[in-house]
Amino acid sequence: MTIKRLNHAVLWVRDVSASAAFYRDVLGFEIVVDMGGQGAFLRADGSTNDHDLGLFSVGQRPAPAPHSPGLYHLAWQVHTIDDLAAARVKLLAAGSLVGESDHGVSKSLYAKDPDGIEFEVMWAVPRDSWPDVPFTGRLDLAAEIARWTSVDTAGQ
What we know:
Elements: E1 9-13, H1 16-27, E2 30-34, E3 39-43, E4 53-57, E5 74-77, H2 81-93, E6 97-102, E7 106-112, E8 118-124, H3 141-148
Parallel strand pairs: 1-4, 5-8
Antiparallel strand pairs: 2-3, 3-4, 6-7, 7-8
């Protein structure tokens, strides 16, 4: 058996409608199934999956303690560095952005959804420009846009 890729992720959320609206309005997901506040299935723009994200309601339960065992974050990839810059604007407007990093192989934004679930929006650097050793440093988005504008790496 060989795993091909992650097909979709499912999250427990307090308010399905609020979370679905966040992923639609901020990250551009399409709501493909709305189960009346109990659950929702969403598809990323351009995806051929039935759904990329499932949301199911648990009501007003407390969040687990930070750094508890479990999922740390999901990473959503964009096509271009320009798309990453546009995502940054939306994440800032939503009050969701919590960090930015340059990993050498990718440029990343970190944010939290309405339940405080962390996710990453990232752009992959062209493979032929990957460093020998990945690292984490400060993201200089303006410099990356100047260098990589319009380069689409979503297919790599």
